[in-house]
Automatic annotation (TrEMBL), chain A:
Localization in the cell: Mitochondrion
GO CC, alphabetical: mitochondrial inner membrane
Protein name: Ubiquinone biosynthesis protein
GO term, biological process aspect, one: ubiquinone biosynthetic process
Automatic annotation (TrEMBL), chain B:
Name under which the protein is recorded: 2-methoxy-6-polyprenyl-1,4-benzoquinol methylase, mitochondrial
GO molecular function: 2-methoxy-6-polyprenyl-1,4-benzoquinol methyltransferase activity
Family: Belongs to the class I-like SAM-binding methyltransferase superfamily. MenG/UbiE family.
InterPro entries: SAM-dependent_MTases_sf, UbiE/COQ5_MeTrFase, UbiE/COQ5_MeTrFase_CS
Assembly with partners or alone: Component of a multi-subunit COQ enzyme complex, composed of at least COQ3, COQ4, COQ5, COQ6, COQ7 and COQ9.
Matching SUPFAM superfamilies: S-adenosyl-L-methionine-dependent methyltransferases (SSF53335)
Residues in the signal sequence: none
The organism's taxonomic lineage, starting at the top: Eukaryota, Fungi, Dikarya, Ascomycota, Pezizomycotina
EC number, as in UniProt: 2.1.1.201
Cited PROSITE patterns: SAM_MT_UBIE, UBIE_1, UBIE_2
Organism (species): Recurvomyces mirabilis
Gene name, Swiss-Prot/TrEMBL: COQ5
Amino acid sequence: MSTPLALRSILRAPAALRPLLLQQSSRALYHSYEHDAPPAYRDPENAILSSALAQVPTHGFTQEALTLGARDAGYLDISTNLFPKGPFEIVKYHLVTQRLGLKDRVQFPDDKTGVGKRVRSLVLERLRANVETGVLPQWQQALALMSLAENIPASLRELSALSDEIWFLAGDVSVDGSWYTKRASLAAVYAATEVYQTTDQSTEFRDTGLFLDRRLEEVRTVGGVVGSTIQWAGFQAGAVVNLMRSKGVKI
Amino acid sequence: MASIIPRAWKRLRLSKTSGWVCNDCRRTFATSRVQRQQQPPASGQHESQDPKSTHFGFQTVTEELKAGRVANVFSSVASSYDTMNDLMSLGIHRLWKDHFVRSLNPGSRNSVEGQKILDIAGGTGDIAFRMLDHASNINHDNQTSVLVSDINPEMLGEGRKRFATSPYKAAGRVAFLEANAEDLSAINDSSIDLYTVAFGIRNFTYKQKALEEAYRVLKPGGVFACLEFTPQLRNPVMNAIYKRWSFGAIPLIGQVVAADRDSYQYLVESIERFPSQEEFAGMIRKAGFLLPGHGGEEEGMQGAWEDLTMGIAAIHKGVKPA
């Protein structure tokens, strides 16, 4: 579907530009087990942003952390111009690397664990990454940056990618309408839990775990109610049509 | 004001041009597609069949001639350059330049050396002043210095005049260099932190060569930054209005205020001939720079430049990899 469109836009471009466009379109839209995905960041970006992230516990998600990160990576202060969105790029770097690293953090040895349990442990593992990297005390600042109008699209894209990743790693293979509702509801649950985590004072973030359990339970209940309601409405509609037909209405 | 009007009127009557808009330009904005097919495309002027010719506005001239004619244009507009910019862009060029400098964030905190900024085609010192102000006032950096380079001695003279009374001149934070951006042999390899060129690169005969020269003089991690007009606006309606303005009004303002229609006719034609954002970003990448803002994202080259005011101008950046 998208291939002829992409091809057309490439052919429409000036000849000098076509190699550039081809280079872009090489990124596959599907997951491949055989081939590693292309790296999310180029090497210099990786070097600067990872050093900047190491500065976050002391300097927060600020331009200063980015500048210090550039210095640590052997770059100049001015090199931070590589990142037009400034501090938000550090936030995004954390989100992207932790999402991609999630598959190595959690292993499910047996097939007995249910999908629901797996989702729960994946979410908790992802939240633990916030603690381990030491960014949690500054995470409210990151949430504030993510909520700026110019950053909202990128933040939401990252949230939906995380939600998708969690369902994928949990082994969910549904291909019906629930594909969308599952991802949307998990994204909502994750976002809420992450906000809760920033204010959690309990040891080992026990309260966050309990909070997550309550949210997942709600989703299950609401999902069940919605599903039953739709089923009931469908049955009633069918019954009404049959009733009308029995009275001679030509439907 | 009262004295300007009779003077301007005199100039208008003296001028030999037959109409308000020349026929060539009429064709340009009316049917740009047809015109593009008839004339060689804006891009790839160096790769065209005849390697010895390039464009000077819409005219085709030999490459040796172009530099001289560009020099003539800027010699004749030097004294009224800043006034003309205000009139032509309705003051918006100041906002662009402010934004350009602010987004670059020159100057470094807690640094002993400060940064070395090279401002190419910076004759009248507009960018240099802003750079030094930003470094001193925002980043409290009193070491950063700017080397203003221009091929045109008249334009540099305007800059010298403006800096003569400023504290930056006394502190030795500004210097001037008369050089061709395609051959910066006066500047050492890997010695510059930030290379800027604002509204200058479209006048260069060999743009790719200038980019390579920028790559050479920059330190690893140094930044190339360019503020330049774009040939086409994205919105076709706004593009039509904008072309009306640039081909109708700007040469006229040039005629009235600076008594020099041809120079300003050249300026608007040279904008039309400049490569599009995509092509220019490709040229920057070809010179070896890392383009910002598309690391691992599916946005393609979108983040590599920033459009200003509906894309009338654009900021391009590139970072020299370490």
